[in-house]
Amino acid sequence: MGSDADTTVIDGLSEVWGSITSLGDDLEPGEWDAPTVCPGWTVRDHVSHLIGIERSLLGEAQPPAVAPLPEHVANPIGAANEAWVAQRRTVPGAEVLAEFVHVAAQRLAELATFSTDRFDEVGWSPVGQVPYREFMDVRVLDSWIHEQDMRRATGRPGGLGGAGESTVLRRLTSSLGYVVGRKVAPPDGTVVVLAVDGPMGAVVSLSMEGGRARRLESAPDTPTATISFDQRAFWELSCGRYEGGADRALELGAVAVEGDESVAQAILAALNIMI
Fold this sequence. Notes:
Elements lengths: L3 H23 L16 H15 L18 H11 L6 H20 L3 H5 L1 E2 L6 E2 H23 L8 H12 L1 H9 L6 E7 L4 E8 L2 E5 L8 E6 H8 L6 H8 L2 E5 L1 H10 L5
């Protein structure tokens, strides 16, 4: 058996995958073909993608590559995802959902047998070489984001306030040091405050020192720039899902900026960390 942390990540996957299943059970046949915010993907394609990832983790071989690749495929990971998705484009949505339920159950049963040592093993993940436990934490994030893509496309909100959203917000706020320090890299002495307002919100204060963004224990009185986000706007922008991007979020008041606008705008432009 794994540790409490391992049980938590397994429970998170179970919760999110169960929510996706419940959503799929409610969909009408035509809704599976609804376009989503992900270019080139329908609601069905999101579930096919999740199936592909989990089948890969079960040790199944990658399907033949799609050729030529569609325009919406931008990198090797996208090409690998597309191969699984393409296989199911003509399969009825209900059948794709049934396959997802089966594969999710297999994966949860497998994970339940893993020891703490197995979860400690470092290996490949989309975020680099990390312990398997963290890779599964990323799977919670990815699964929940795709659930929200499906819900938006079908006008069926839900899945909020649970393990999925909590994991997403925790991971995204922890990535802000990378966004500011590595992607934007403002001069030393720059201090920024990023405030996420909502029931799962947080305030992250960062100071550039020696070319790195150091997290401060509390928000300073006079930061270089402050960016305030509505909770949903924050994760949508960080995952490249906000329609119209940061400019539209500012226009609607879902994001507000104080202080140095050039620094704030650079951070907003770099906020998307999804592959």
